[in-house]
Structure formats: structure tokens, C-alpha cells
């Protein structure tokens, strides 16, 4: 950033006009640094000096505004871009769609999808997955499924992320046979399930008390050289604790440690609560100390469990 700023300052001091390419580079870098105040200042300066922004300039600023949650400002720029006769593209629409989905304004994102379609742009796998994920966050699973199946009807191919979203939906609905079938289908279509895909199924099985199948999937993913992560282990630990199998949970916690994985806040919370319920307060407090040392914020559930274990 310093080099680009130095060039800008040297040119400005020397009375040399800064061109659109340097402005765009600086705006892009400020956006990446999440310094939207400076990015917008430079964009306004361009207008004052009658330097016309390009599609890349608009794209960089729209991306930065979306990531900082300033979606109204980003959409104003989209309209301005169109008024200035610049060509709109999938990347800019995808950025806005994803931005709206991240703040759970999915209906606004769907509105933008319709707008881009009226302009002859075809939503791609990225746009569909942003929309499907956003719908899932709002528990609109049927809408998410319809959307992804519409994607197939439109001749687009599902990628691993799209398949994983569908697997997650079916697991949340308890349709495990359908979820497993989707994994087989994605492999047949040349897409490889990843750790996240398997984690969706493992978590679903654990929550439904189907621990044998959850462990079988863990073995399957390891057979494919996909290493279980903290989310895999947390699901298994939670499943064991939910069904009163504390020793199994402790074995998983130990296995996790041997693999060099650190528990997350959910892992600690589940284990501490379960140890307290079993009257094993010494072990619970030991984990509590580890949790504090790891820098996690302890919620009220943990404190209540620890206090109750002392009575």
C-alpha cells in the first residue's frame, strides 16, 4: 500500500494528473484493508477531477462496501454504473447477492437475481450457492432446494459447495438416505465430497443418536485422506454426551488432542456441562482453566454448570 500511496502523493505534489488506473489500484487496496472511508474519499476525488471510473473501479468499491455491510451504498453505485453506460457483469451482481445473503436479506438478493436475469446475465453456481445458503440460515429449506434444483434445470452443473448445501439441508430434515445418495451422485459427476460435506452428515447422525453410522463416516472420510477437523470431533463429542456416553466423548477429546487439534468454544462448553452433570467437577474445572488459557469467552451456561456441580 505504501508504494502506491507514495506514487499518488508524488504525482499529486508534482501537479501531474492521477489516472484512473492508479485511482482504481488505490481504491481496491483500501477496500482490502477495510478502510472504506479512504476508498470513498478517493472515489469522490475522481469525480471532482473528472476522472471517469471504469467497471473495475466500481467493482472494487462495490465489493468493499458489500463486505462492510453498506449494501444500500453499493446498490446506488450499481445503478450509477448502469447510468454511465458501463457493462454490468456476474461478478458485481454476485458480490451484491452474497452481501445481502450474509445479512439475511435474502429477498433483496433474490430481487437482484431477477434483475440480472432481465439483463441477459445467467446466475452462476456462486450466486446460487449464496442464495441457497442464505435461505438455509432462515430455515427456508424448501426454497433452497427448489433454487438448486432450478439451477440443474437451467443446465448448470452443481459443484461441491452446491452439493454440500443440499446434503446439509437433507440432514437437517432427517433425510439421511437422500443425503448419502447425493454424496454418491456428486462423486459420479466428478465432484469430490470434502470435510464440510462429511461433517454435515456426521453432525446429523450424531444429533439423531446414530453414532455407529457417524463413526463409519469418519472412517470413510479418513480412507479418502480427508482428515477430521475440530467440527467433526465436536459433533462426535456432542453426540456421545447427548446420549450419556461421557467416556466415549473423553476418548474423542483425547484423540483430537493427539492429532494436534484444539477444542473450540462449543467443544469446551459441551464437555464441561457433561462432566458437571456426572459430578466430575475436578475434570470440569480443569477444562475450564484450559478454556480460559486458550482465550475463549465463557458463557453463562458454563458458569451455571460449574456452580451447580459444587452443590
UniProtKB/TrEMBL annotation:
Q: Which SUPFAM superfamilies match?
A: HCP-like (SSF81901)
Spell out the InterPro entries in the cross-references.
PPR_rpt, TPR-like_helical_dom_sf
Gene Ontology MF terms in the entry:
mRNA binding
Q: Which Pfam families match?
A: PPR_1, PPR_2
PPR repeats: from-to residues: 19-53, 54-88, 89-123, 124-158, 159-193, 194-228, 229-263, 264-298
PROSITE patterns reported for this sequence? PPR
Q: Which UniProt keywords apply?
A: Repeat
Is the Repeat keyword given for this protein? Answer: yes
Give the similarity note.
Belongs to the PPR family. P subfamily.
Instruction: Output the NCBIfam families linked to this UniProt entry.
Output: PPR
Q: Per its record, how is this protein called by name?
A: Pentatricopeptide repeat-containing protein
Organism whose genome encodes this protein: Saponaria officinalis
Amino acid at each position: 500500500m505504501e508504494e502506491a500511496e507514495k506514487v499518488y502523493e508524488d504525482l499529486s505534489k508534482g501537479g501531474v494528473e492521477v489516472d484512473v488506473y492508479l485511482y482504481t489500484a488505490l481504491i481496491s487496496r483500501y477496500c482490502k484493508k477495510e478502510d472504506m472511508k479512504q476508498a470513498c474519499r478517493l472515489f469522490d476525488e475522481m469525480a471532482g477531477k473528472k476522472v471517469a471510473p471504469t467497471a473495475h473501479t466500481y467493482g472494487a468499491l462495490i465489493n468493499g462496501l458489500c463486505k462492510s455491510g453498506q449494501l444500500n451504498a453499493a446498490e446506488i453505485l450499481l445503478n450509477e454504473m448502469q447510468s454511465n453506460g458501463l457493462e454490468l457483469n456476474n461478478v458485481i451482481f454476485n458480490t451484491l447477492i452474497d452481501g445481502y445473503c450474509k445479512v439475511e436479506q435474502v429477498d433483496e438478493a433474490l430481487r437482484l437475481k431477477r434483475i440480472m436475469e432481465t439483463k441477459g446475465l445467467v446466475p452462476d453456481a456462486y450466486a446460487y450457492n449464496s442464495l441457497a445458503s442464505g435461505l438455509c440460515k432462515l430455515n427456508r429449506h424448501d426454497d433452497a432446494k427448489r433454487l438448486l434444483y432450478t439451477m440443474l434445470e437451467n443446465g448448470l452443473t452443481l459443484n461441491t459447495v452446491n452439493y454440500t448445501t443440499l446434503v446439509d439441508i437433507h440432514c437437517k430434515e432427517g433425510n439421511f438416505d437422500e443425503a448419502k445418495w447425493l454424496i454418491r451422485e456428486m462423486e459420479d459427476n466428478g465432484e469430490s465430497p470434502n470435510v464440510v460435506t462429511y461433517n454435515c452428515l456426521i453432525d446429523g447422525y450424531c444429533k439423531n443418536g446414530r453414532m455407529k453410522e457417524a463413526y463409519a463416516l469418519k472412517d470413510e472420510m479418513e480412507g479418502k485422506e480427508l482428515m477430521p477437523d475440530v467440527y467433526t470431533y465436536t459433533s462426535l463429542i456432542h453426540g456421545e454426551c447427548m446420549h450419556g456416553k461421557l467416556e466415549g466423548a473423553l476418548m474423542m477429546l483425547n484423540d483430537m488432542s493427539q492429532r494436534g487439534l484444539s477444542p473450540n468454544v462449543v467443544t469446551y462448553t459441551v464437555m464441561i456441562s457433561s462432566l458437571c452433570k456426572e459430578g466430575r467437577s475436578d475434570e470440569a474445572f480443569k477444562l475450564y482453566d484450559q478454556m480460559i488459557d486458550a482465550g475463549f469467552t465463557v458463557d453463562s451456561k458454563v458458569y451455571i454448570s460449574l456452580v451447580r456441580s459444587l452443590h
